[in-house]
Design brief:
α5 runs antiparallel to α6 and α6 runs parallel beside α7. The longest helix is centred in the middle third of the chain and has 32 residues. The chain is of the alpha/beta class. The protein contains seven helices and five strands; from the N terminus they run βββαβαβααααα. The chain has a five-stranded mixed beta sheet. Helices cover 52% and strands 14% of the residues.
């Protein structure tokens, strides 16, 4: 028995930044634009705006660039609302932009993303598991503490060469506290991976310092312990 294939008539492209979302809707030949805040209230306003334009949100194909970390929260929220979130991966998107005769920088624009969504129908994105999301948050927090330590080390040297002994001693104590925090984070990360074997490697591990490299090696063998 043949089943009718759903006829898609509306497509959305979303350009993200840290604070804002720029959404472009293509529906029945019309092109509409909306700028919203990149937060939960903004995601809900986007749903309301689509509904006011007679666009059903369930199964609506929405295209974002998920290589941009500012897109993660929006993608998860919109998928939770029932939209069919698609990842505009850089390679295929850039090929599409080139085929349209557009400059390379246009690949991040909401209008291009909407037209790409309508033309190429990219595959549906599957939201990551809560365990994977938590792992990425742990890694980002660890990197933030490591960055603070790096800055404090630079200040430590400047205080020493300037003969500012009291500041130098105080900063050494603060660095020791940061070292303890780093060890705590590493322990928590390894425990998390051991509780959830088989998690994919997050992008935050790329270019990580030596301690994270040791974590990666330990994590890959966690199931054997």
């Amino acid at each position: 028995m043949n089943h009718a294939i759903k006829q898609e008539t509306a497509f959305v492209g979303i350009e993200t930044s840290k604070l804002l979302l720029k959404a472009v809707l293509i529906s029945s030949g019309d092109v509409l634009c909306k700028v919203l805040e990149n937060d939960l209230a903004g995601f809900r306003w986007l749903r309301s705006w689509l509904q006011k334009n007679d666009v059903p949100v369930m199964g609506l194909r929405v295209c974002l660039r998920l290589d941009d970390p500012n897109s993660e929260a929006a993608a998860r929220a919109l998928a939770g609302m029932g939209m069919l979130v698609c990842d505009a991966q850089p390679g295929p998107l850039e090929a599409y932009v080139h085929s349209c005769g557009l400059p390379a920088g246009a690949a991040r624009g909401a209008v291009v993303l909407a037209h790409y969504c309508a033309s190429e129908r990219p595959a549906r994105w599957t939201p990551p598991s809560p365990a994977y999301v938590e792992l990425r948050l742990w890694l980002r927090r660890l990197q933030a503490v490591q960055q603070v330590r790096k800055q404090e080390i630079a200040r430590l040297e400047s205080h020493f060469h300037a003969g500012q002994i009291a500041l130098h001693q105080l900063l050494r104590q603060q660095i020791a506290c940061l070292d303890a925090q780093i060890r705590q984070h590493e322990t928590a990360i390894l425990a998390h991976v051991r509780r959830h074997p088989g998690l994919p490697k997050p992008p935050e591990l790329l270019g990580s310092p030596q301690r994270i490299g040791r974590y990666t090696f330990a994590a890959s063998n966690a199931s054997g312990h």
